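Quick one:
INPUT:
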């Protein structure tokens, strides 16, 4: 009986220790990464007050929202299409602080807003939307190229 209790006690200590170690190892990389990121952001990033995050996944989210939205408009799923149109605009807003080309920013913002307005009007003609989607995709391509010209650590 006593031996069993000791064994359980020892087992519990091992679990607690491994949990503590797990937490510690999770904290450490985050703590050591931050000063490194600040050092690397000595040029454009700090000047522009950019959020310390990679905008490339945002471009992927934007592309996905756009593609899903097109499918939903074609399928007559208006509510879902409107949700993705809103998503499209909000990802655009997230990417904005990373862009340093005001003209391109304006184009991107306008293209996303045009699509959202069109989808929100409820009577979206898929063929009319096609032109706006093509314009958006073209601007997104330019944005990706623009963002790749900067370093994001
Ligand atoms: Cu940036």
């Amino acid at each position: 009986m006593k031996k069993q209790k000791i064994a359980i006690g020892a087992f519990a200590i091992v679990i607690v220790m491994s949990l503590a170690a797990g937490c510690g190892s999770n904290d450490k990389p985050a703590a050591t990464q931050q000063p490194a990121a600040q050092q690397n952001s000595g040029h454009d990033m700090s000047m522009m007050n950019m959020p310390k995050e990679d905008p490339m996944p945002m471009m992927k989210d934007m592309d996905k929202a756009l593609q899903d939205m097109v499918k939903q408009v074609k399928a007559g799923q208006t509510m879902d299409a409107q949700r993705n149109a809103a998503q499209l605009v909000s990802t655009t807003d997230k990417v904005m602080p990373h862009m340093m080309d005001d003209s391109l920013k304006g184009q991107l913002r306008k293209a996303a807003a045009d699509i959202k307005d069109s989808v929100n009007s409820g009577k979206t003609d898929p063929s009319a939307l096609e032109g706006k989607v093509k314009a958006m995709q073209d601007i997104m391509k330019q944005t990706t190229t623009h963002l790749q010209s900067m370093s994001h650590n």
